[in-house]
Specification:
- The chain has 19 helices and no strands.
- The longest helix is centred in the middle third of the chain and has 33 residues, at 214-246.
- The radius of gyration is 22 Å and the shape is globular.
- α1 (2-21) runs parallel beside α10 and α16 (305-321) packs antiparallel against α19 (374-403).
- By secondary structure, the protein is mostly helical.
- It has helices spanning 2-21, 25-47, 50-63, 71-99, 107-118, 128-135, 140-146, 149-165, 169-193, 196-211, 214-246, 250-256, 258-267, 270-283, 289-302, 305-321, 328-344, 353-363, 374-403.
- The model is unreliable at 116-121 and 405-414 (pLDDT under 50).
Length: 414
């Protein structure tokens, strides 16, 4: 609510100044020496934590999969996770390409965007061969320092696989250390987000004072596309999987999991919803406990379908707003990163923001652009968390079906 309040106040003041004093020297001075530095410092504080969060989240997320010993249960869970997350990202990218919510912006915004893009990192090449070569960094530290996040993500993923395959006391200690790094970074993210009302207000004042009402229309279109994509995935894709693969009636499934969905919506945290999801899996869905415990616990971190869809829509929307045209090869890379990031994205409120900032730099869009969306992120976070938790429960049902050990609907859970 405080962030929404900051968004409303900043937008209202910016619109008023744009209407009454557009082009005046005093307004330019207020933006140059007041609101713009405040917004920039807020965004830079978020970006400061991107590299350690990406590394620690992906390394621990992959490392805890225990690839060597999970067997069929782990393979099935990971396969369903990648498959369903890929569908989610395809839906998101398809809607953005079809509806183009970031197109048709005002001339003022285009001019401002072009200046920002000129100062942004160079986008990745569109050549498939160049993209393949760029995946493997010669120096991961140099890749992180130079903004080559594609290479750094690959290194983080490979490091996580190494953690999963190497079992020793030293690697367990290393894993705990990396987990500690992740927890410290998330604490720092929480501290930075306490300044979000001021930062969002300053960012929205700067943007609306410069370009007027058009940016708010673009923001409303963006929210509409995200909600449409999440709805299609939650009620469309999940229903088809339940009906065709799990042989369960979708309406009964959604009725059984309504408590978990309500908890996810209110907390905006997959981790906070985990106890409720486990209760629903045991008492209402009647899933085998060894399946529900593993799938839902792992899914709180690694099965983020809604988040993957949200990240894909957000990156393409901001690319459209800033006039950065992404071809199909670049969009394919965005899709792959969103699916992989869904494995390591934190199951806490605003956990996807560092990943989005990383992808924006990869495609040549200023990372500061994410500030435009922070005012509406809480609502979208609640919605995408609902899809995430629903996806965890769907995957649990699918895996249980494959295990051929789902209890009948009238069974008594011991």
């Amino acid at each position: 609510m405080r962030i929404l309040f900051g968004l409303a106040i900043g937008s209202a003041l910016g619109l008023a100044c744009n209407a009454l004093a557009s082009g005046s020297p005093w307004l330019a001075a207020v933006i140059r020496y007041g609101t713009e530095p405040i917004g920039t410092v807020f965004i830079r504080a978020l970006l400061m934590l991107v590299t350690p969060i990406v590394f620690s989240a992906m390394a621990v997320g992959i490392g805890e999969l225990d690839l060597k010993h999970l067997g069929k249960l782990g393979i099935r869970t990971l396969s369903y996770t990648v498959f369903v997350s890929s569908i989610a990202v395809v839906i998101g990218l398809g809607l953005v390409n079809l509806l183009r919510p970031g197109a048709g912006v005002s001339n003022e915004l285009i001019e401002h965007a072009q200046q920002a893009v000129a100062a942004a990192p160079k986008p990745m090449s569109g050549s498939p061969v160049d993209l393949l070569v760029a995946i493997v960094p010669s120096n991961p530290l140099q890749a992180a320092a130079s903004g080559d996040m594609l290479g750094f993500v690959f290194f983080s993923l490979l490091f996580g696989v190494g953690l999963a395959l190497t079992k020793s006391a030293a690697t367990e200690a290393l894993k705990r250390g990396i987990q500690g790094l992740f927890e410290v970074c998330m604490t720092l993210i929480g501290l930075v987000l306490r300044l979000a009302p001021l930062g969002v207000g300053a960012l929205m004042f700067t943007m609306t004072a410069r370009v007027g009402f058009s940016i708010l229309l673009q923001l409303a279109a963006y929210v509409g596309v995200v909600l449409l994509g999440l709805s299609l995935h939650l009620f469309g894709v999940y229903s088809l999987l339940l009906r065709l693969v799990a042989k369960r009636p979708p309406l009964a499934f959604f009725r059984d999991i309504r408590l978990a969905l309500a908890t996810a919506f209110s907390t905006a945290s997959s981790n906070a919803t985990l106890p409720t999801a486990l209760h629903v899996a045991d008492q209402h869905l009647r899933l085998p406990r060894h399946v529900s415990r593993f799938v839902l616990t792992a899914g709180a971190t690694m099965n983020q379908n809604g988040t993957a869809l949200f990240e894909g829509v957000t990156v393409l929307f901001l690319a459209q707003v800033y006039g950065v045209e992404l071809g199909w090869p670049q969009q394919a890379v965005v899709m792959i990163i969103c699916v992989l990031a869904g494995i390591g994205t934190a199951g806490v409120p605003a956990g996807s923001l560092p990943v989005i900032a990383m992808i924006l730099g990869l495609v040549g869009v200023p990372a500061e652009a994410i500030g435009l969306l922070l005012g509406v992120d809480r609502l979208l976070d609640m919605c995408r968390t609902t899809v995430n938790v629903g996806g965890d429960l769907v995957v649990a049902v699918l895996v249980a079906r494959d295990e051929e050990s789902v209890a009948p609907p009238d069974a008594v859970v011991g």
